[in-house]
Amino acid sequence: MSTRTPLMAGNWKMNLNHLEAIAHVQKLAFALADKDYDACEVAVLPPFTDLRSVQTLVDGDKLKIKYGAQDLSAHDSGAFTGEISGPMLAKLKCTYVAVGHSERRQYHAETDEIVNAKVKSAFKHGLTPILCVGEELAVREAGNHVSHTLAQVDGGLKDVPAEQAESIVIAYEPVWAIGTGKVCGAGDAQEVCAAIRSRLAELYSQELADKVRIQYGGSVKSGNVAEIMANPDIDGALVGGASLDADEFVKIVRFRD
Ligand code: PEP
């Protein structure tokens, strides 16, 4: 039986302004307050422009909900117009930052080298990276999904020391399942998540591999989360579209109810 606490994280993508963000987080907090939800850690990843509002609410009301960003710059400061740095996110007391989301890899040409630099920057500034990995449809159809995903794990973790790697979160998100309504079969998701854990054991140690939380992401909803979470190597979900509906996200968090 795993001792890893599942992490349910909502990736809002480019949705909800800072006022909507406050209303949304209040709704989550209210819906989760009557229950002991220590069984799951809950986090939201709002757009950058919402983070200060979410921080004020979470700190002010001492909410257990954690928050983080959807990306960060690999640089600490300087002439990088439009970017947001690790120190800025740390100052906002973010816990998490997603790194290498498939939409960043696809629309912003983020390579494993860039993703690796961002992972290192996150750790340098005390943020926990949620390293997103996963294959496109053609790669899965060719049967190369495991090797493709493990190469992204290797790339993202290159030269990251064990003292840092032990706290990383890895999100396995098959690209063809993101925002499409197509869920990776629970057995298929388990196959890749187990392979990721074995790779962590090879790169570091079995002890470290057993500590790291590996999430599944890709069209997770209240109707399929229990089946996904029944797998021994899946320790939570990274939820996109369904996290924008507070009631639905609460049902996902309370998948055991
Ligand atoms: C995501 O954006 O990480 C994601 C998994 O999206 P969705 O849940 O909408 O598929």
Automatic annotation (TrEMBL):
SUPFAM superfamilies linked: Triosephosphate isomerase (TIM)
Compartment annotation: Cytoplasm
Keyword Cytoplasm included in the entry's annotation: yes
Catalysed reaction, written as an equation: D-glyceraldehyde 3-phosphate = dihydroxyacetone phosphate
One GO molecular-function entry: triose-phosphate isomerase activity
Pathway given in the UniProt record: Carbohydrate degradation; glycolysis; D-glyceraldehyde 3-phosphate from glycerone phosphate: step 1/1; Carbohydrate biosynthesis; gluconeogenesis
Main location: cytoplasm
The entry's keywords: Cytoplasm, Gluconeogenesis, Glycolysis, Isomerase
Keyword Cytoplasm carried by entry: yes
Subunit structure of this chain's protein: Homodimer.
HAMAP family found in the cross-reference section: TIM_B
Protein name: Triosephosphate isomerase
